[in-house]
Specification:
- By secondary structure, the chain is an alpha+beta fold.
- It contains nine helices and eleven strands.
- The strands form four sheets. The protein has a four-stranded mixed β-sheet, with helices on one face. A three-stranded mixed β-sheet has the order 3-4-5.
- Helix 3 packs antiparallel against helix 4 and helix 3 (119-132) crosses helix 6.
């Protein structure tokens, strides 16, 4: 019956109050708050803040096990912080914004640490530590218990391809979610001769370029509802200090010129979608001056401009599929908004 806060994580809508209500059934918990933290851009994780009852000895792994009996996997916090008290607002409610940031080691390990024993385990543990932001990952630690999810799993497989030269299916990580298990899969692939992947070579830009499978899906959806903004990837940056606006505009233009994907548009040839890479892409950085507005009006204007950019109506047949807008809030205060269509940008690779 509690609907305190609803959040969306990796495509799932989650009621934080539902998780909190489940945790409050634990006999060792006095108070609890669950929130979402984004320690790294695009990597949202559920975090549980717990006040134990006097004399209770609580561990994050035990709390996850307790919750697994009541909630699906995507609703389980991947990090735990134990406090003496929760920060409150003047009205007595939990002040979620004042909850402390995570420290190293907040992500609870389900198993005690066992050091890597082979070269494959050592390299793989290093990959997991880098992608998950967790220190001292041992061979029995579970990728998903440490906060891993399907999007991060694709990064792991990409690193495996680069480091070991083997192509493992994504399901390998779901079937073998520990360092030891996945390292064993890598060893078997190497022994089986799967390491001889063909080198990647550039193809001619003078012939039709096919879409990747992911691009095909996005292009297909776009045909039914063009320009809907559903697959826009937005960014917002607060800029403080003296700003050289022409230099910023030239920098963004140089970035677009450097990366072919940011100069790519999509058209059809003989009924099939193809990529078209423009040799140059026109780019402008529009400036909106909000300096004359008071603080409340500025905040409302920034929010509205952000929503407008979030719904920016890209045309896949016309590039570039990246747009930006600069808001001037004062002589040395600006807000930079950037949006990129997901068909040319996945956020990490």
């Amino acid at each position: 019956g509690r609907i305190d806060t609803q959040v969306k994580i990796r495509g799932f809508r989650v009621e934080l109050g539902e998780i909190e209500a489940a945790l409050e059934r634990h006999t060792g918990i006095a108070q609890v708050a669950v929130t979402v933290r984004e320690e790294r851009p695009g990597d949202k994780r559920l975090v549980g803040y717990v006040i134990p009852k006097e004399g209770a000895q609580l561990e994050g792994s035990a709390l996850r096990t307790f919750l697994k009996q009541q909630l699906p996997e995507y609703m389980l916090p991947s990090a735990w912080v134990f406090l003496d008290q929760l920060p409150l607002t003047p009205s007595g409610k939990v002040d979620r914004r004042a909850l402390p940031a995570l420290e190293a080691g907040s992500y609870e390990h389900e198993h005690s640490y066992t050091a890597p024993r082979t070269a494959e385990e050592t390299l793989l543990a290093g990959v997991w530590e880098h992608i998950l932001g967790v220190e001292r990952i041992g061979v029995q630690h579970n990728f998903f218990d440490l906060g891993g999810h399907s999007l991060l799993a694709t990064q792991v497989m990409s690193h495996i391809r680069e480091i070991f030269g083997v192509e493992l299916p994504l399901r390998s990580l779901f079937e073998q979610p520990t360092v030891a298990g996945l390292a064993g899969e890598i060893q078997r692939a190497l022994k089986g001769g799967a390491a001889a992947l063909p080198p990647m070579k550039p193809v001619s830009r003078n012939e039709p370029l096919p879409l990747s499978f992911a691009q095909q899906r996005l292009w297909f959806i776009e045909q039914y509802e063009p320009g809907n903004g559903l697959y826009n990837v937005p960014f917002g940056y607060e800029l403080h200090g003296a700003l050289d606006i022409p230099a910023l505009e030239r920098s963004l233009a140089a970035l677009i010129q450097r990366h072919e994907s940011l100069r790519t548009s999509f058209t059809t040839l003989a009924g099939q979608p193809v990529q078209v890479i423009a040799p140059k892409a026109a780019f402008q950085l529009p400036l909106t001056d909000l300096a004359a507005l008071d603080a409340a009006a500025q905040s409302a204007a920034v929010q509205q401009h952000s929503l407008d950019m979030l719904a920016y109506p890209f045309e896949l047949g016309r590039g570039p599929l990246i747009a930006a807008r600069l808001l001037r809030l004062g002589a040395e205060r600006h807000h930079l908004l950037i949006v990129v269509h997901h068909i040319v940008f996945d956020g990490w690779s």
